Amino acid sequence: MKFVIITGLSGAGKSQAVKFLEDLGFFCVDNLPPALISKFADICSQSRGSIEKIAIVTDIRGGKFFDQLQSSLDELEKGGFYYDILFLEASDETLIKRFKTSRRMHPLAGDGRIIRGIKAERKKLEEIKAKATYIIDTTNMSTSQLKQEIVHLFVEGGKNEKLIVNIISFGFKYGIPLDGDLVFDVRFLPNPYYIESMRRHSGHDEDVREYVMKWPEASVFMEKLLDMVEFLIPYYIKEGKSQLVIAIGCTGGRHRSVTISNLLSQKMREKDHRVIVEHRDIDEEGNC
Q1: What's the pLDDT score for residue 286?
Q2: Cβ atoms 62, 31 nearer than 8 A
Q3: pLDDT at position 76, please?
Q4: What pLDDT does residue 68 have?
Q5: I need a surface site. Which of 55, 105, 150, 277 has the fewest CB within 10 A?
Q6: 163: Cβ–Cβ under 8 A, 6 or more apart, which residues?
Q7: How far is CA 43 from CA 6, 32, 51, 98, 199, in A?
Q8: How far apart are CA 207 and CA 286, in angstroms?
């Protein structure tokens, strides 16, 4: 019997994750009090094979009951049940935006600021995060990308030893991404914005890509960038990092940074890296 326990930060995507697992044939329960986990496992084990895949969500919504999670996991192990823990997290900035967009209150914020609730929750979840089988950072993930990651882990049998590389193109005039681990400035390359026929195009278009990459310095930069990232990744993995955010910026985030980001992601995928690409500022009005 496959048993998955989903937990993590509020607003990080746990509800979406359990829906994806349900679509994949898992019997799912949301917000199950930890004290009932072992009993629930016992019931499912008596189903004579009709329930073979189980996913439950348990988190701080359980209030004081959540404090019993560790003892419940101990009971599972004593009962001979093997389980995976899927832990979802995201950056503080992303979580705050999600709570404000949904107009929900953070469970631990009370009447205070959202950030206080997030910090309190991070501290409360430190122990369970340390036990997690898989950790997914959804900061730069779309819903479809989260689904792909769920499928990779629980259908394709993927392991989490590979770093997830997030490549973000951005415009310096809109600010540097706060979660960037490596930030590169490609404003030294000639700007297609000043070519009238390309102004409304982007780094997705062939004419822009050809213009950006026709300069010798662009090819040299790509070669050195890829070489440096390849050099660093094993050390980030050794450090225990599960996600690397590479931010590539130009003036507006529409032409040069998009071109370089797409090309870098293509070359990294060819080397069997797991890559997620986001073009943060490509649709900003000031870029056209």
Answers
A1: 65
A2: yes
A3: 83
A4: 80
A5: 105
A6: 233, 236, 237, 241, 242, 243, 244, 273, 274
A7: 19, 14, 10, 36, 63
A8: 20
The CA distance from 205 to 61, in Å, is 46
Query: How far, in whole angstroms, is CA 231 from its chain's centroid?
Result: 22
CA distance 239 to 65: 34
Known binding positions for ATP: 8-15
Question: Where in the sequence of the chain do the CATH 3.40.50.300 domains occur?
Answer: 2-154
Going by the annotation, the residues of the binding site are 8-15, 59-62
Query: In 65-192, which ranges are E strands?
Result: 84-89, 134-137, 164-171, 182-185
Burial of 8 (0-12, 13-18, 19+ CB in 10 A): buried
Helices (H), 125-250: 126-130, 143-154, 206-213, 216-239
Write the CB contacts of 172 (distance below 8 Å, at least 6 apart in sequence): 185, 187, 249, 250, 251, 253
Q: Which two tokens stand for residue 62?
A: 């359980």
- Tell which CATH architecture fits domain 2-154: 3-Layer(aba) Sandwich (3.40)
Other C-beta atoms lying within 10 Å of the C-beta of residue 152: 16
User: Amino acid letter at 157?
Assistant: G
* Binding-site annotation, residues for GTP: 59-62
pLDDT at residue 100 in the model: 85
User: Which residues are bridge partners to 85 per DSSP?
Assistant: 5
Residues facing residue 169 across a β-bridge: 248, 279
pLDDT single digits (tens) 271-285 = 888 888 889 899 886
Q: Give the residues of the chain that fall short of pLDDT 50.
A: 160
Task: Locate 209 and state its tokens.
Answer: 């890509």
Q: What would the pLDDT profile of 233-257 be if each residue is shown by its tens digit?
A: 988 887 767 788 999 999 999 999 9
Helices within 103-198 (DSSP H only): 114-124, 126-130, 143-154
